[in-house]
């Protein structure tokens, strides 16, 4: 089973109505839990796209308690509703973790690659996210019902200095209320 998420984007619009400077996006990679009776990990990559952010402050999504947050402003502990997102994004709906949400940022990695190599960056993301999984959840990845995915730089965002990989944790096909820290499931 896999879950489609979105791509990561980089800085762009200087101001509302200003000239748009499009930059790169980062690919999100989907990892499927492995081990035991669960299927072996699979990888799906969303296509890279171009986009930018606006100078306007984050807008609250109508009636949901969500705020649209620039994809590059995500931090560990942020909860997001990204399950319905596809294709290109410049912002992602964040919400209080006390509210139902799709996934949670549980770890950040700064890529140590010396140059852009999507395969190497994805390997670094997979290994780093999986290594941080057990200490966050409380059990190893292969024994867990929870999955992880990540946002990683693309060539364009890399060329602009993006080195951050955001690891996200989620339970397939359901929204979570509260953090998954220490969930041990």
From TrEMBL:
Residues 35-71 are annotated as: Disordered. It comes from the Bacteria. Residues 77-173 form the Septum formation-related domain. PROSITE patterns: PROKAR_LIPOPROTEIN. Pfam families: Septum_form. InterPro entries: Septum_form. Residues 38-66 have a biased composition (Low complexity). This is Septum formation family protein. It comes from Nocardiopsis mangrovi.
């Amino acid at each position: 089973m896999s879950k489609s998420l979105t791509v990561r984007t980089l800085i762009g619009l200087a101001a509302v109505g200003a000239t748009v400077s499009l930059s790169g996006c980062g690919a999100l990679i989907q990892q499927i839990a492995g081990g035991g009776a669960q299927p072996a990990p699979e990888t799906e990559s969303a296509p890279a796209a171009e986009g930018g952010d606006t100078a306007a402050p984050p807008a609250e999504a109508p009636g949901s308690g969500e705020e649209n947050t620039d994809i590059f402003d995500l931090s560990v502990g942020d909860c997001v509703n990204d399950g319905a997102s596809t294709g290109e994004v410049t912002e992602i709906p964040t919400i209080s973790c006390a509210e139902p949400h799709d996934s949670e940022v549980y770890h950040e990695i700064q890529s140590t690659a010396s140059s852009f190599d999507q395969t190497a960056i994805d390997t670094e993301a997979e290994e780093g996210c999986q290594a941080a999984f057990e200490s966050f959840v409380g059990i190893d990845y292969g024994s867990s019902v929870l999955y992880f995915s990540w946002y990683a730089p693309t060539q364009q965002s890399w060329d602009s200095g993006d080195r951050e990989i955001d690891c996200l944790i989620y339970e397939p096909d359901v929204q979570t209320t509260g953090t998954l820290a220490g969930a041990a499931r």
